Amino acid sequence: MSGLTTRLPRHVGQGTKFHPDPERQSSDRARQPRSGRNGHQDAARISAVPTAAGGIARAAFARAVLSLPDVAFLVKRAGLSVTQLEDPTIRIPVGHQIAFLNLVADRLPDEFLGFHLAKEIDLRELGLLYYVQASSNTLGDALRRTERYCSIQNEGVVAKYRDDGAMRVSLHYNAVRRLSDRHQVEFFVTVLVRLCRHLVGRQLRPVRIKLAHRRTGLPHDLAACFGCEFVFGSAADEIEYAPASGRLPIASADDYLNKLLEKYCEETLAKRRLGATSWRVAVENTLAPLLPHGQGRLSEVSAKLGMTARTLERRLAKEGVSFLDVLDDLRFELAKRYLQEPNLPISEIAWLLGYADPSAFSHSFRRWTGNPPRQLRAS
Questions:
Q1: Kind of pairing, strands 208-211 and 229-232?
Q2: What is the DSSP string of 171-239?
Q3: Burial label, 368 (beta-carbon count in 10 A; 0-12, 13-18, 19+)
Q4: pLDDT digit string (tens) for the chain, length 379 residues
Q5: Assessment of whether the complete model's pTM goes beyond 0.70
Q6: How far lies 285's CA from each of 120, 178, 213, 361, in Å?
Q7: CA proximity to 24, closest of 293, 339, 336, 302
Q8: Do residues 249 and 137 make contact, with C-beta atoms less than 8 angstroms apart?
Q9: Residue 93: φ, ψ to 5°
Q10: Buried b (16+ CB within 10 A) or exposed e, 210-223
Q11: Is 173 exposed, middle or buried (0-12, 13-18, 19+ CB in 10 A)?
């Protein structure tokens, strides 16, 4: 799809209002241009860089090397080096891993790259995390340890385990933009499903899998592998299993080994403590699921983040942005992605972005790109 990479300066087309609620407008108000933000503010935004062990990126690199002559160029575009991808002892920034997966998927092309990579990987490549899971007594114990130690593998995504009638594992993003990720999170859920089946020695099927990004569906072969309902465009990333699944025993359980491995995991965690998150990223990740419900307001987001609207505005200001900057930028990024889905009508895209009507969305898109959304979709 062409024509979606250029965005006009913010001052073009500003000044028009569409909704009585200013926080559901297209943010067409005069704001400080990006060039006016100084280097100190930009540095403040990047207060922490979560890293990952990099197994997913290395699996994608191995596949790309086989068929793409320009793989070194893709590596560089993602902000990585070939050395990082060839040396399994080097940790990789999570944002760069996501970018590399996106580039490889587009170039191969493989729209379901994350699923495909996860089907092929040896679960033992999870390293210490795998062995502390496999030596646990029950599946619930293994998933509780996944929650505790998942950052050893990836600091940008936090797993949460719940057993409140149904057994659930949800994924939450930490200092990483959820918007940019599709293949990594699909890799995670596929590996988790495979892991649960491997640990209990049966073809355990989830009840449903929810993912926050949108897809029109899965190919039949992939859907058959999971054997459950998939919900895309959800408010959360979550795998749900039937009640009592957490009590299923693990054949390879070993209490002595598990206690020893937990000690090693705790020592590893103590060495890797991630600093403060970016408030811009936190706002963006909170905003995305609220937009379709008309709740993309400062008051709603600040409440979900556990602070007053004024406090959140102050923290964003320290990073050189405003709430309306984040809202506007998020809508633009989501719009580009949604327009690549041929089955999504413009009216539904407008609703998904929190606009009251399609004309408001079209006006914003003209301001962002200089073209109406229908023209860019047609190209």
A1: parallel
A2: EEESSS-STT-SHHHHHHHHHHHHHHHHHHTS----SEEEESS--S---HHHHHHH-SEEEES-SSEEE
A3: buried
A4: 433 334 444 433 333 333 333 333 333 433 333 333 444 333 333 335 899 999 999 999 999 999 999 999 999 999 999 999 999 999 999 999 999 999 999 999 999 999 999 999 999 999 999 999 999 999 999 999 999 999 999 999 999 999 998 999 999 999 899 999 999 999 999 999 999 999 999 999 999 999 999 998 899 999 999 999 999 999 999 999 999 999 999 999 999 999 999 999 999 888 776 555 688 888 988 898 888 888 889 999 999 888 999 999 999 998 888 999 999 998 988 888 888 887 888 998 999 899 988 999 999 999 999 889 988 776 6
A5: yes
A6: 30, 6, 12, 21
A7: 293
A8: yes
A9: -55, 130
A10: bbbbbeeebeeebe
A11: buried
Q: How many CA atoms lie within 13 A of 72 on its CB side?
A: 3
The CATH superfamily label for domain 22-46+278-378 reads Homeodomain-like (1.10.10.60)
Which amino acid type is present at position 183?
H
Report the 10 Å Cβ neighbour count for 292: 15
Query: Is the torsion defined by CA of 27, 32, 34, 38 positive or negative?
Result: negative
Report domain extents, the chain: 22-46+278-378, 113-271
User: Which pair of tokens denotes residue 48?
Assistant: 């922490």
Q: Taking the CB of residue 168, how many other CB atoms lie within 10 A of it? A: 22
d(CA 206, CA 245): 10
Distance between alpha carbon 253 and the CA centroid of its chain, in Å?
A: 32
Q: How far apart are CA 82 and CA 312, in angstroms?
A: 39
Task: Give yes or no for a cis peptide into 373 (omega within 30° of 0).
Answer: no
